[in-house]
Design goal:
Elements (H helix, E strand, L loop, with lengths): L1 E5 L4 H12 L3 E5 L3 H6 L6 H10 L3 E4 L6 H10 L4 E4 L6 H6 L1 H22 L4 E5 L14 E3 L4 E3 L21 H20 L3 E5 L2 E3 L11 H11 L13 E6 H13 L5 E4 L7 E3 H12 L5
Helix pairs in contact: 1-9, 4-6, 6-7, 8-10
Length: 298
Amino acid sequence: MKILVTGSSGLIGSEAVAHFDGLGHEVVGVDNNMRRVFFGDAGDTLWNLARLKGATKRFTHAALDIRERAGIEQLFSAHRFDLIVHCAAQPSHDKARDIPLVDFEVNALGTINLLEATRQRCPEAVFVYFSTNKVYGDAPNEIPMKELETRWDYARAEDFDGVDETCRIDRTMHSLFGASKVAADVLVQEYGRYFGMPTCCLRGGCLTGPNHSGVELHGFLSYLVRCNVEGRPYKIFGYKGKQVRDNIHSEDVASLMHEFVLNPRKGEVYNLGGGKNNSCSILESFQMVEHITGLPTV
């Protein structure tokens, strides 16, 4: 296959590049290092791009901005893709508040640029969009909770498996980031159902792996480990540090994408997570990291 991966220098995008390149496919990556623009030097992904160039055999890189329709159209004119893995995004709640127009342009406009180019040039191609569980906004917080020593947990046993895809996405507050991702998510579904294209939205939670440029505003486990190793303070934002993250490794995400390609559907939606056994609160993550490094969390 010939595959397009956007956000190819990020955590999930780079994992997708490595996964499909390793299977012998030709991969074109699009990434203009906007993470550095959003988050400063700590968010720079050029190191990951250099790693990919050295580790892959059939990967080429294009420093395109997905907001620029002409550039995207030119890319799709030059290549006929069999699979589009769309991971490029502005990923932070708090950052979106400061740059709402840029946030919406990257997350929503960029997505429809890619969808329309796919429809015009290769409508049979599988389109995998990396959405977010933030499309549900505050709705999951309506589920009854109980406070334990180190975490909040579901109060009812029937909720232990977490939130499923039937949870509503409207009549709730999302953050501006969540709203822009909702717009993109619904567009991906609509292109699947309206135009009959094989598309899916992967609504991820806490994603982790070794190739993350984690920063305070995005990249929970990566940033926490960095703070611990470097002896920097880690700031907890509310909930007594008992808020729980459901962690899934980037390799597992790439494998899931591959499974969808083998059996695609039209306008599908999937929640992604590591399940209760792979969850931890911030307080619990402090203990885990300290056990591994032998260093105290500041």
